[in-house]
Specification:
Pnp Oxidase, Chain A; alpha+beta; 236 residues; Thrombin, subunit H; elongated; 2 domains; 6-stranded antiparallel β-barrel
Length: 236
């Protein structure tokens, strides 16, 4: 899932020209101005600093960190967060210099960040995970690809059963990354959104945690974050 949605303030061409003018004014006023780049990897946001190296031919060249360089070249785009800029901006990768860890970006537009709307960090699992649900006492199976402390998005062929249910409980079996202990949790939950057909649906579900279930899920997410960060570093 993309960390942002592009939106147009005037038109794509006019937006790009306005953003290029803003970059040029900032660079002329303060060549050492610091920018923040944002990308996502397996639903986890990575932010790093960057410096403008050059501006030419409707593009901006940035020097950034090894991790962010890898993410940009992998995604072929990056968000430049508001701060020095007036608004969040997204740029597409035009050229990458592996030796200097520099990226040339163009086709700029404005970005609305999805991550800013989240109340908790979401992480993607190593592989999709099957789980069991109890919907008004009926056993229902589903698959999740990512999870946050506040909830999950479940793919299921029993969407109509989940949608009608007055009582919903999710049953998890999660492996502790350090101890290899199986952590079990049965979490009362609520359906807040369903997309797609009832017989093949994506259900957005939020947890009604107890202190114990919150600890299980937060421990799992913390260790999954460490795994993802380690994975990024191994690619550098």
């Amino acid at each position: 899932m993309s960390p942002y949605s592009r939106y147009s303030a005037v038109s794509p061409a006019a937006d790009h020209d306005s953003i290029m003018q803003e970059f040029s004014h900032i660079y002329a006023r303060d060549p050492g101005a610091k920018f923040k780049l944002l990308n996502m990897y397996k639903q986890l946001p990575f932010t790093s600093g960057a410096d403008v190296v050059d501006i030419k031919n409707d593009t901006v060249e940035f020097a950034t960190t090894p991790s962010q360089f890898h993410l940009i070249t992998d995604a072929a785009e990056v968000v430049i967060k508001a701060g020095v800029l007036k608004d969040n901006v997204v740029g597409k990768l035009v050229q990458a210099d592996h030796r200097r860890l520099q990226v040339t970006l163009g086709e700029f537009g404005y970005a609305e960040l999805h991550a800013d709307k989240r109340t908790s960090v979401r992480v993607r699992l190593k592989i999709p995970m099957h789980l069991q649900m109890s919907a008004d006492g009926n056993k229902v199976s589903g698959v999740i690809d990512d999870i946050s402390l506040s909830g999950v998005c479940i793919r299921t062929i029993a969407g109509s059963v989940v949608e009608r249910a007055q009582s919903l409980e999710l049953k998890f079996k999660l492996l502790h990354a350090v101890t290899s202990e199986v952590m079990e949790a049965s979490i009362p939950s609520r359906l807040v959104r369903m997309d797609g057909k009832a017989m093949h649906a994506q259900c957005t579900v939020v947890f009604d945690h107890t202190p114990q279930t919150e600890q299980v899920i937060s421990t799992f997410i913390y260790h999954r974050q460490l795994e993802i960060i380690k994975e990024i570093k191994s690619k550098i």
